[in-house]
Amino acid sequence: MLWLLTIAIGLPLLGCSQSGRDPIHGNAEIDWVDFLKLNGNSYTGVHDAVLKNPADVTDQVAGKVKFKVGGVVTNPGYRTKDGDAAFLAIGTELYRVKGFEADELLAAKDESRIGGYRLYAGDGNVQRIQLSYKDVLKDETERIVFQD
Q1: Mind listing the pLDDT tens digit for each residue in 83-100?
Q2: CA–CA gap between residue 59 and residue 96 (Å, rounded)
Q3: In this predicted model, what pLDDT tens digit does every residue of 15-50 receive, in sequence order?
Q4: Residue 2: its pLDDT value, please?
């Protein structure tokens, strides 16, 4: 009777083993935040700011995206690594921006964005790149809409 109880408890536990599992594919749908990891730093996509002057993006390549996790990784246990990005394509170059250190702000070419670049702020630096009204190019502004 004891051996039967041992088998009844032990058998379901065998199915819980993680050894040999694919670290990328699992059974979950993940909604990724726009992020990237590069040179030991984590960055978050900045969607409410644009470059005042796109010429401030330098020719200095800080790194390249090695792996796009969005739409590929479905395992909630996956741990992001250097070179991973949520939505940027593999091979996307990440550029330094004048006036910022590489761990503060990076830019990726994106023709669909104002100024032609998507911005990524290093963790803890999002507030530093927020624009204020005095920074708006008034000659090129047609209207401003305030929302609650």
Answers
A1: 999 999 999 999 999 988
A2: 7
A3: 444 545 666 777 677 888 999 999 999 999 988 888
A4: 44
CA 58 to each of CA 55, 75, 81, 101, 129: distance values in angstroms, whole numbers, following the listed order: 7, 36, 25, 12, 17
| Spatial CA neighbour of 59 closest among 109, 110, 95 | 95
Does residue 83 sit in helix, strand or coil? coil
Reference 32, options 22, 44, 41, 20; nearest CA is 44
Select from 122, 128, 140, 144 the least CA-distant residue to 54.
Answer: 140
Instruction: Please tell me the distance from the alpha carbon of residue 103 to that of residue 120, in angstroms, as a whole number.
Output: 10
Instruction: Burial-class residue 111 by CB neighbours within 10 Å (0-12, 13-18, 19+).
Output: exposed
Give CB contacts under 8 A, 24+ apart, made by 110-113: 113/50
